[in-house]
C-alpha cells in the first residue's frame, strides 16, 4: 500500500508540474537563427510589441533622451521597413527636424580575372548582422520620446482547445509567439492581431535615378514626347475627420501589481481575484489558478483521471479581446518577457461557448470509411467577440483526450462543425435523381421562344442508427453551384461560402430515418411554339399581373392563331396515322385477294375482301382529300402566326 501511495503522489506531482508549465510555455529556438536586433537605440527601451499574421511586427520604444540627436542602429536588411514606417511622438511638445542615413553606391563590376589570377572570394556580409546608423535630429535639450516602427517577425499562430461537457462547452484560445528579433522582449506589453494588413518592402534606402528622355539638336527627332495632363477646376473636398495614426496609439498603463507591492495591496488584489472566480459548483475537476503569461499556477487534483484542460479561475489574467478596424486584437493585460530565440505559448482566452457534440456525414476521399459512416464532431458558435483564425483544435471530454481537428477562419457569431473521429455505429446511404420541372416564359425575340425550366438533383438519404442511444446527425451535402434549396428540412443550414448545406437528422435508438434535399436552378432552352412546354409558359405569362401589358395583347392575339394552327396540326397528325393504317390494310387485302384469285371455292371470301377493299379505298380518298385541305390551312395559319410574333419582343425575365 505504501508503494502504491507513493506512485500516486508521484503521478499527482507530475501532473501538477505539467499544469504549472501550461500557462506560459517557452520553447528555445534554434541558436543558428540568432541575428542582430532590427533596431537598437540608447535610452529608448522596448515597451510594446504588436504581432500580425503577415510577417511583420510593430515595435514601440519609450524613454527620455538629452541632446539634439538620437542615433538608431538599424540592421541593414531592415532599413527599408524602418524608414517606411518610422513614427515618433515627443510628449514634451518638441519636434523632429530630420533623419539621416548612409547611402551605398554600387560600384561598376570589373571584368572577371583569368583563372590563374582569380583571388580568393571575400566572405559575404550577412545583412542580418550588419548595422547602419540612422540619426534623428531634434530641437531642445531634453525629450520624452515614443517611437514606433515595423520590422520582420514570424507570424503568431493560434491553437485551440475545446472541452466538451454534458451541458456546456469551453473554448480555450492559445497563441504561439516566436521571438527571433535578436533581443529579449523584457516586460513588454504584448498584443497579437488576427489580421494581415498590407506590408510592403519599399527599399527606401536604395537610391533610384529614373531614366529621362534625351533632348538633342540638329536633324534628330525626339522619339518620345511626354503628354500633358489637364485637371478641371473643382470644389475642394472637405477635410477628413482627425484620427490618430495607428502606429502612434499608446496603450494605457496596465494596473498590474508590481513585485514589490505591499502586503495590503496583495490582499486587495486577492479579494478582487476571488470576485472574478467562477462558482465552485461550476469549476472543472482540475484547473489552473493563475493563467497569466509567465506566472505559475497551482492545481487541485481529484483522483487520478486523465489530465484535461479546464477553465481558468483568474479571468482577469486573460487577454482583452477587441475589434479595431475590422481586425481582432488580443491585448495581454500584464507585461510579459519573451527571450530572444524562444517561443512562448500564451493563453489568450478561456470562455464558455454555445455548442454540442454531434455527428457529421461528410465523405472525405482520404478516409474511405467516411463514404458510409459519419464523423464525430463538435459544433460551437464563436461568441468570443472577434475573429478566430484558422488553426488546430484539440478536443477533450469523457475524462480525457478525444481527438484533433482544424477550424477554418471563423467570424464572430458564426458556427463551426469540426470532425475529430469516425463513428462506425451510424451508416448512411444516398441516391440521386435528376429532376426537370415547370416551364416559364423567359424571352421572345426574332420569333423564337425561350423558356426557363427548374432543373437539378433530388438526393435521398437513408440513415441507420445501430446504437442504443439517441443520436443527432448533420449531413454535409455538396451544393450545386448557382442552385437554390427547395423546401429543405427544418433547421437546414445553407452555407453559400463553403458550397455546402448541413441537414439535421434526429435518430432514436436502433432507428432508421430518411431525408430528402431538392436543389433547383433555372435552365433556358428554345422550344417549338406548338409544344406543351410552350403552352405552359405562354399561359403562365398571360396570367401574370407583372407582365408587360402591350406584350400581353400582342401575344394573346398571336396565340389565338396558334391555337387554331395547333388544332389543325393535331387533326393532320391523326389523319396521317389513319392514312398509314388504311394503306397498310388495303395492301394486305390486295395480297389476300391475289392468294385466292384462282380458288373458285372461295367466292364468298373474295366478295367480302373486295367489299372491304372498296370501303378502305373510299375512306382513304376522303382522308387524303381532308389532309390536303388541312395542310394548306396549316401553312396559312403558320405564316399568320410567324408574322404576328416576328416583331414581338419580350426581354429576358428574372
Question: What would your notes on this structure say?
Answer:
The protein has helices at 2-22, 79-85, 263-276, 532-542, 549-595, 603-646, and strands at residues 24-28, 39-41, 45-51, 56-66, 69-75, 87-90, 96-100, 131-138, 142-152, 157-164, 169-179, 185-194, 320-324, 327-331, 336-338, 342-353, 355-361, 375-381, 391-397, 400-407, 415-422, 426-445, 448-465, 471-478, 484-486, 493-495, 500-507, 512-527. It has 654 residues and is of the alpha+beta class. Strands 3, 4, 6, 9, 12, 13, 14 and 15 form an eight-stranded mixed sheet that branches. Strands 1-16-11-10-19-20 form a six-stranded mixed sheet, with helices on one face. Strands 21-18-17-24-27-26 form a six-stranded mixed sheet, with no helix packed on it. Strand 13 and strand 14 (327-331) form a beta hairpin.
Amino acid at each position: 500500500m505504501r508503494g502504491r501511495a507513493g506512485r500516486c503522489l508521484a503521478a499527482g506531482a507530475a501532473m501538477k508540474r505539467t499544469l504549472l508549465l501550461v500557462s506560459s510555455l517557452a520553447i528555445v529556438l534554434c541558436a543558428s537563427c540568432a541575428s542582430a536586433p532590427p533596431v537598437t537605440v540608447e535610452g529608448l527601451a522596448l515597451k510594446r510589441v504588436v504581432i500580425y499574421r503577415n510577417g511583420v511586427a510593430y515595435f514601440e520604444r519609450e524613454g527620455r533622451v538629452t541632446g539634439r540627436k538620437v542615433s538608431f542602429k538599424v540592421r541593414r536588411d531592415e532599413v527599408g521597413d524602418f524608414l517606411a514606417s518610422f513614427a515618433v511622438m515627443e510628449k514634451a511638445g518638441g519636434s523632429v527636424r530630420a533623419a539621416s542615413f548612409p547611402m551605398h553606391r554600387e560600384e561598376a563590376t570589373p571584368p572577371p580575372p583569368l583563372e590563374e589570377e582569380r583571388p580568393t572570394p571575400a566572405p559575404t556580409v550577412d545583412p542580418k548582422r550588419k548595422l547602419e546608423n540612422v540619426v534623428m535630429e531634434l530641437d531642445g535639450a531634453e525629450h520624452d520620446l515614443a517611437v514606433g516602427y515595423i520590422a520582420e517577425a514570424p507570424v503568431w499562430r493560434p491553437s485551440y482547445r475545446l472541452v466538451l461537457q454534458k451541458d456546456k462547452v469551453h473554448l480555450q484560445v492559445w497563441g504561439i509567439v516566436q521571438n527571433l528579433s535578436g533581443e529579449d522582449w523584457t516586460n513588454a506589453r504584448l498584443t497579437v492581431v488576427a489580421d494581415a494588413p498590407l506590408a510592403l518592402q519599399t527599399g527606401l534606402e536604395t537610391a533610384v535615378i529614373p531614366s529621362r528622355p534625351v533632348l538633342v539638336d540638329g536633324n534628330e527627332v525626339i522619339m518620345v514626347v511626354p503628354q500633358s495632363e489637364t485637371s478641371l477646376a473643382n470644389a475642394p473636398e472637405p477635410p477628413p475627420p482627425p484620427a490618430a495614426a495607428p502606429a502612434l496609439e499608446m496603450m494605457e498603463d496596465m494596473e498590474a501589481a508590481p513585485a514589490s507591492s505591499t502586503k495590503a495591496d496583495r490582499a486587495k488584489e486577492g479579494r478582487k481575484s476571488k470576485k472574478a472566480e467562477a462558482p465552485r459548483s461550476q469549476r472543472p475537476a482540475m484547473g489552473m489558478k493563475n493563467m497569466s503569461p509567465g506566472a505559475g499556477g497551482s492545481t487541485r487534483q481529484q483522483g487520478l483521471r486523465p489530465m484535461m484542460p479546464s477553465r481558468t479561475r483568474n479571468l482577469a489574467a486573460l487577454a482583452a479581446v477587441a475589434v479595431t478596424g475590422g481586425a481582432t486584437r488580443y491585448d495581454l493585460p500584464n507585461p510579459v518577457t519573451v527571450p530572444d530565440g524562444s517561443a512562448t505559448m500564451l493563453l489568450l482566452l478561456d470562455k464558455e461557448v454555445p455548442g454540442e457534440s454531434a455527428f457529421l456525414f461528410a465523405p472525405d476521399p482520404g478516409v474511405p470509411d467516411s463514404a458510409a459512416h459519419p464523423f464525430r464532431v463538435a459544433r460551437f458558435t464563436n461568441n468570443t467577440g472577434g475573429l478566430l483564425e484558422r488553426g488546430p483544435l484539440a478536443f477533450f471530454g469523457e475524462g480525457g483526450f478525444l481527438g484533433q481537428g482544424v477550424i477554418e477562419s471563423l467570424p464572430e457569431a458564426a458556427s463551426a462543425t469540426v470532425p475529430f473521429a469516425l463513428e462506425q455505429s451510424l451508416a448512411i446511404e444516398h441516391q440521386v435523381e435528376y429532376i426537370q420541372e415547370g416551364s416559364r416564359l423567359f424571352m421572345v425575340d426574332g420569333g423564337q421562344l425561350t423558356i426557363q425550366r427548374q432543373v437539378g438533383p433530388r438526393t435521398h438519404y437513408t440513415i441507420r442508427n445501430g446504437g442504443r442511444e439517441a443520436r443527432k446527425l448533420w449531413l454535409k451535402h455538396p451544393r450545386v453551384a448557382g442552385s437554390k434549396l427547395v423546401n429543405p428540412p427544418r433547421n437546414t443550414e445553407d452555407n453559400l461560402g463553403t458550397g455546402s448545406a448541413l441537414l439535421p437528422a434526429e435518430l432514436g435508438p436502433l432507428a432508421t430515418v430518411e431525408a430528402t434535399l431538392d436543389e433547383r436552378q433555372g435552365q433556358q432552352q428554345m422550344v417549338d411554339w406548338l409544344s406543351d412546354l410552350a403552352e405552359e409558359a405562354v399561359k403562365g405569362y398571360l396570367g401574370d399581373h407583372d407582365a408587360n401589358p402591350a406584350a400581353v395583347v400582342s401575344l394573346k392575339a398571336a396565340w389565338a392563331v396558334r391555337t387554331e394552327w395547333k388544332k389543325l396540326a393535331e387533326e393532320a397528325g391523326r389523319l396521317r396515322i389513319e392514312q398509314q393504317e388504311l394503306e397498310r390494310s388495303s395492301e394486305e387485302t390486295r395480297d389476300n385477294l391475289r392468294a385466292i384469285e384462282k380458288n373458285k371455292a372461295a367466292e364468298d371470301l373474295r366478295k367480302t375482301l373486295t367489299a372491304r377493299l372498296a370501303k378502305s379505298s373510299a375512306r382513304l380518298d376522303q382522308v387524303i382529300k381532308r389532309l390536303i385541305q388541312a395542310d394548306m390551312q396549316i401553312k396559312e395559319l403558320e405564316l399568320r402566326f410567324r408574322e404576328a410574333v416576328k416583331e414581338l419582343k419580350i426581354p429576358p425575365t428574372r
